[in-house]
User: Fold these one by one.
Assistant:
Number 1:
Amino acid sequence: MAGDYEDRQANGNEIAVIGMAGRFPGARDIEVFWDNLKNGVDSLSVFSDEELVDAGVQPELLNNPNYVRIKGVLDDCDCFDAPFFNYTPREAAMMDPQLRALHECAFQAFEHANIDCSKVQVPVGV
């Protein structure tokens, strides 16, 4: 197995992972995420009846023994820098929060790889 990699011939389709980024419940980046994994940190949020009712959960659902009161929550989802990504505030407000997080993580992956996005002259995938 060890020799497999050395025996391969370059075909022009090679890739290299040179930067990573991610946002996770309880972790703003991959370094904190890794520390949480190593240290057994539980990053899920447990919600009280009051918090759930305030969020729109029907009170009768709270008495259901199968109802799960736990969720992974991402911090700072309301801090998207719309102008930086060439969006108007209105466009950003209507955009799926997951897409906003994807934009932020894509840019952070470039930063992690020490790549200046404004100077890249070759195709790059994120």
Number 2:
Amino acid sequence: MQHSRCLGHVALVVVVLFGACTNRTSSPADGGAGVQVSASAVAGGYVGSARCGQCHGEQYDSWKGSMHAIAMRQVGVSAALPGIKGAVEVVWGQGASGRLATEEGALMFRVGEFEIDPGPYRLPFVLGGRYVAQYLVQTDGGRLQALAVGFDADKGDWFDIFPDPGADSPRQATDWGHWSNRGMTANSECISCHVTGFDKGYGGRTDRYETAWAEAGVGCEACHGPGDEHVRLRRQGPGGDRALSDAYLVPEGKTMMESCAPCHSLRREIRGGYQAGRALLDYYEPVLLDDPDYEIDGQISGEDYEWGSFVQSRMYGKDVTCLDCHDVHTGELRANGDGLCVRCHEQGFAIPSHTHHEAGSAGAACVGCHMPEHIFMQRDRRRDHKMVVPDPELTVLTGAPNPCAQCHSDRSAQWAAEQVEAWFPETGGER
């Protein structure tokens, strides 16, 4: 599911956020009663990013254009919805289809599959949108279900986010990963990393969700913690305890890394209520390297995100953090191409005598060899943050992947190992 995790839109009380979408058009599945989504506010002292922006305008303006800011938006907040121009017919997996269209002022979804109630269903929220957008469908029991179809903003087309299982095993409504089933329930699988101040609100006895959040999108307080105490102390002027206020809201170093990890790692939640600055392991159990989502040498295999890879790297061991490469508020890289790497590493690495590839080619780029790309959800490109040293010999011995094969798929790992050893004989092939 898309974790790309509301421009200028702050919903401090969830009843406001849900005001236009607490009920979908009734259908036989719910006896005509519609679906009521939680309208309770999230406690915990959140004030909203717009309030932060009143004093921190420069930082707020930088954040507003970030992927964090649009991680989740209420449909209708922006007139330009990703991929929606009039009525849209979408198709995925063995001809399964649906129709997205505005009906009576709301974006609705009608199912083309015969084995499930055709709807219409309301689509109150969209996840992401800069590169890949995924819409949420409102169904029974307070559930928000993520459609198994995404919109590719770069290519301008809709696509199935799962690999085609083949004609012999079409995806059924009873399958865990079907858009209507529990594997695609965004309340438990997605939303926590797309909003600020999240409360899952699941009732085990009733099997219902009363999910709530303080703000749609990953706002200021997702990284700095609830801001009410900060605001209160600042309002006291020079007499306020500014040292306490600032120290609490500006996590640094490993503390900052752990504030990123809940959403930028593969992990299991063991306790709810995490806030930035708290100890990660008190709330989450990171998936270990013996999990199938990692390769035998720790490279990413499944949808692992960045943290679990980065903490294996030499960079992390030298106290490099996310913010050494990424701007703190925009999330963008601090420099383009090899310019990012040579800020710390010798210029001599970014030359053909080291890369052994023609300048300007994919193989000459630092990230081409040391941060190979992997594709998830069929279109979402992510780089491995383990900062690997290309080692085709390890591929020969263990089957672990190596970056050479991404460009030289027609060549064997043994060929690549011999090439690397010939280039770096003094190190036995290690770069």
